[in-house]
């Protein structure tokens, strides 16, 4: 008997394939407006600082896509799941991923973004692009919008928090301020009653309860350089403020990110660590999820559930 073939469009922000592609990538982010030489130099310098001549960032996402496909096939052998990649600012673009599914004869598909928390400005944007292309090509497609409280996701994050806390001297754990972080978005999402901040806080609270944390807070990071205000306070400002309060042990837990990308490897490991040295603070961060089996199982669970719901409602 022929297995049903289900396409899975795995969407993420995208990153250049090499340093040579940084300018084209930045131009796409800026809606076709090339960056100034100064802007290009700053972004290129950030990539150079983290990759040291080797460019692993795209490979992280590639491995997650392959890992999800392998997990889906292992957990649900009765169905042939085929994963495709769709990126926001690099090739293959979201629309390319949808087109590739249709070219391969896929007639039903599920879309998921490598981001657990929903915002109209992030996940919503990916879904809108994929949905429009799917409707244009006649592809039946449903979407996972959020999975921020999935038990396996929380399991994976809990392991990371506890392991990172063990890097502090015994007896110091209660003195460590844990700061959960995520990518900032423009403040206007608050007027839109966007669920993003509340979902991030829900994940933070769930983790704090699991680990038994009482000394924790939330902070934003990696805000865009635009005229409009972005959500704050930024983690660098938070670090300065709590140092003045006498806190000199900090654990950053970037729950809004699922992979080692620029916002983790530069904004935390280089920029925040430099400030920590300046302030005389012991700073650690939790390891990224990347292809952790628990994260792959989280994605597999929500994709399969969404496909089942869509199949029933057809």
Automatic annotation (TrEMBL):
Function of the protein: Involved in coproporphyrin-dependent heme b biosynthesis. Catalyzes the insertion of ferrous iron into coproporphyrin III to form Fe-coproporphyrin III.
Reactions catalysed: Fe-coproporphyrin III + 2 H(+) = coproporphyrin III + Fe(2+)
Amino-acid positions noted as binding Fe(2+) in the UniProt annotation, renumbered to this chain: 183, 263
Family note: Belongs to the ferrochelatase family.
GO cellular component: cytoplasm
Gene Ontology biological-process annotations: heme biosynthetic process
GO molecular function: ferrochelatase activity; metal ion binding
Domain of life, source organism: Bacteria
UniProt xrefs under Gene3D superfamilies: 3.40.50.1400
E.C. designation(s): 4.99.1.9
A UniProt-annotated Pfam family: Ferrochelatase
Keywords: Cytoplasm, Heme biosynthesis, Iron, Lyase, Metal-binding, Porphyrin biosynthesis
Keyword check for Cytoplasm: yes
SUPFAM superfamilies: Chelatase (SSF53800)
Keyword Iron appears in the UniProt entry: yes
Binding-site residues, Fe-coproporphyrin III: 13, 30, 46-47, 126
InterPro entries: Ferrochelatase (IPR001015), Ferrochelatase_C (IPR033644), Ferrochelatase_N (IPR033659)
Record's protein name: Coproporphyrin III ferrochelatase
Compartment(s) of residence: Cytoplasm
Main enzyme class: lyase
